[in-house]
């Protein structure tokens, strides 16, 4: 992925690793933080890791660097985005001395548009950086570290259906994700509908703080989350698709509802978002079990079973303003890619 540097004489060899992680889409949403400094969630959440949206990241700690370098999709990144990566790397760097890294990352989907690029991004960065630093962390610990980059990244460490737990202590010991079912457990589909390519207007952290401070529904949201999580665990154990879909859609609207009720109101949707939502309701009224979810952006994700994909594609083809579709299956856990595999 990146240009290999020549090692001259007495320099230490660079310590490098490449990892891939897939995005995940929350079925029971995470919205709200109980600590900003440790990035601790105010609620647990449940997600599906998706196979089609992924980030590949190579991290090389090099003694010759005077600061961290970050390249995303072939472009050098500067300013706050580079600083976010840099302060995250402070959690992982080899401790014997200050060592900076070259980070080269590629997303195969739009960045920062409500398609969970921070989830796959920070999960891949955590795995690659920790391995490059010589650490072989357990998944639980990888998840705890990834969480500090982005809450949803804690879930992208695992494949399939994943639960992020809200811990009880201020040190974040209990705030990590766990697998509920791996990617082969249930042949689900998520149709990811791109309705706009631009970055989101209000980032998730800002949106969460704003909703907590001003939305009258925020405390209700927090209070009801344990019951929603339990109902979702049950739906997964029973493979009850209708229940899975209803709970998914409800959690999404509860989250967006509380944002809309914030002061000033936070609305992430565009006209195409609403058209897709209405189309899915129309399909349901025709007996097609399809359910929507949306994150901090205008994109819509449609949860369904494989048998209905053609009907859904057909229905969406009537909305001309849709930019792109991905048909996603449950995706795999984050993993290290060996150089041999990378070249293949
Ligand atoms: O991981 P963050 O801080 O970008 O927050 C993610 C928030 C949502 O995507 C809206 C919900 C979720 O659970 O992924």
Keywords:
eight-stranded mixed sheet; 9 helices; disordered C terminus; alpha+beta; single chain; four-stranded antiparallel sheet; binds (3R)-3-hydroxy-3-methyl-5-(phosphonooxy)pentanoic acid; 344 residues
Low-confidence runs of at least 5 consecutive residues: 1-12, 340-344
The kinds of small molecule bound in this structure are: (3R)-3-hydroxy-3-methyl-5-(phosphonooxy)pentanoic acid
**Could you tell me the number of beta strands?**
14
* Class by SSE composition: alpha+beta
Number of helical regions: 9
| Gyration radius, rounded | 20 Å
Describe the main β-sheet briefly: 8 strands, mixed
Cα shape: globular
Portion in beta strands: 15-25%
Mean pLDDT: 92
The oligomerization state is single chain
The secondary-structure element order is EEEEEEHEHHEEEHHHHEEHEEH
């Amino acid at each position: 992925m990146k240009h290999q540097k020549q090692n001259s004489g007495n320099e230490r060899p660079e310590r490098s690793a490449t990892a891939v992680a897939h995005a995940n889409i929350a079925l029971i949403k995470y919205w709200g933080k109980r600590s900003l400094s440790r990035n601790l969630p105010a609620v647990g959440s449940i997600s599906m890791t998706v196979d089609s949206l992924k980030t590949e990241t190579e991290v090389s700690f090099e003694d010759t660097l005077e600061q961290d370098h970050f390249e995303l999709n072939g472009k050098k990144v500067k300013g706050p985005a580079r600083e976010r990566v840099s302060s995250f790397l402070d959690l992982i760097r080899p401790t014997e001395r200050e060592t900076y890294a070259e980070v080269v990352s590629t997303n195969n989907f739009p960045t920062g548009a409500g398609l969970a690029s921070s989830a796959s991004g920070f999960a891949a960065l955590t795995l690659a950086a920790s391995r490059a630093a010589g650490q072989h962390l357990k998944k639980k610990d990888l998840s705890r570290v990834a969480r500090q980059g982005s809450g949803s990244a804690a879930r992208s460490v695992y494949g399939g259906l994943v639960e992020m737990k809200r811990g009880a202590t201020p040190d974040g010991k209990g705030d990590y994700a766990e697998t509920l079912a791996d990617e082969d457990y249930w042949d689900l589909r998520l149709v990811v509908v791109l309705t706009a390519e631009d970055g989101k207007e209000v980032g998730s952290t800002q949106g969460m703080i704003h909703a907590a401070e001003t939305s009258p529904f925020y405390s209700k949201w927090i209070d009801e989350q344990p019951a929603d999580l339990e109902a979702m665990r049950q739906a997964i154990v029973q493979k009850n698709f209708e229940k899975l879909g209803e709970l998914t859609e409800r959690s999404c609207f509860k989250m967006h509802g509380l944002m809309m009720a914030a002061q000033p109101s936070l609305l992430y949707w565009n006209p195409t978002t609403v058209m897709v939502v209405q189309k899915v309701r129309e399909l349901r009224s025709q007996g097609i079990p399809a359910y929507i979810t949306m994150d901090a952006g205008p994109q819509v994700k449609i949860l369904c079973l494989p048998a209905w994909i053609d009907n859904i594609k057909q229905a969406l083809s009537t909305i001309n303003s849709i930019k792109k579709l991905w048909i996603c299956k449950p995706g795999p856990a984050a993993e290290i890619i060996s150089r041999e595999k990378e070249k293949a």
